[in-house]
Amino acid sequence: MAGNYRAVDADAHVIETPLTFEYIEDKDRRFAPLVVNQIAGAEQRSNEGEVRSEYWIVDNNVYAKDRNVESRISKAEWREMRDIEGRVAHMDELGIDVQVLFPTLFLRPCTDDIEVERALFRAYNRWLADIWAKAPGRLAWAALAPLRSPLGAIREELAWCKAHGARSVFMRPLELEKEIADPCFWPLYETAQELDLAVTFHAGNGSFQVHDFFFPTAFPIHKLSMVGAFHALVMTELPRRFPALRWGFIEASSQWLGYAVNDAMLRKRKRGRRFPDNVLREYNIYVAVQVTDDLDYILGRYADEDYLVVGTDYGHTDTSAEIEALRLIRDDGKIPAAAVDKILGPNAARLYGLQ
């Protein structure tokens, strides 16, 4: 990929279907997730207020398939990537040069079995690689790393993904029942740095303990865990260990930066440690904003206009979803036009190594 990216959607989604898991190797077919329909019991509603009917069963864990699927703006064929030309044409209508694709099903913990994880993540990655191949200049993606596998297998998988359109490693703010600064992840970060892949933490959760404790309350599961991950990164100064690695915090807004930065600063100063004046620049961290964020305040106190990006959350219908996010930020007028121009495209192009 090369070019002048004026508009990069830093957070778009694919909606997995049984087609996704047709990419599972024959020897692992027994691990393919099931899709089932509810025929009795209490009604549950989607984010759009519709009755939910379909569920995934993944390694004996049950998750709603249609809870957070936007159905009123885009077409199912575009969300599910069954019509790549239609998806790209819709991007053109929205004024988007590139979308970076993230999963839907895997925003939550689905398995703690090494074989199941490897089979499902490998299948997902190959599905995304085929999607990328049909529009390589328009659709980039975040690769799933089978974290329970040996490092050699992880590196082999990520190298393959990088060669087939992946631009970052997808991580949730809690993985393997550990926080993201745990030394067990350092070899992964070293690998990402060597491969020139960003590490992008996306709102979600890979911890069964945390997910099941708070479920169905999404805020502590998906959002507060992101604040904790950022805080851990800053407090441990982990980015200094991997100076060339780009870090991203995607789909958690930027409104929490004031609280997280201020708290980390106070803790550092109590210990007599220096705290950087510009945290995002110092640690090479990018944060995805939402159109409802108080951006003039965030930019004035806690963030750098070179380290903010924006995404539409394409395909979803939660509090982060805004199909016109890029246009709205441009038209808002809250922050200088020069800063807007950076947030809409060049910053994300740098985060994802699109240049």
Description:
With about 350 residues, the protein is of the alpha/beta class. The chain has one domain: TIM Barrel (Alpha-Beta Barrel). Helix content is about 35%, strand content about 15%. The protein is built from 13 helices and 13 strands. The strands form three sheets. An eight-stranded parallel β-sheet has the order 1-5-6-7-10-11-12-13. The chain has a three-stranded antiparallel β-sheet with strand order 2-3-4, with no helix packed on it. It has a two-stranded antiparallel sheet with strand order 8-9. Helix 4 runs parallel beside helix 5 and helix 7 packs parallel to helix 8. The model has no long low-confidence stretch (mean pLDDT about 95).
TL;DR?
With 355 residues, the protein is an alpha/beta fold. Helices cover 37% and strands 16% of the residues.
Descriptive keywords:
alpha/beta, TIM Barrel, 8-stranded parallel beta sheet, 3-stranded antiparallel beta sheet, 13 strands
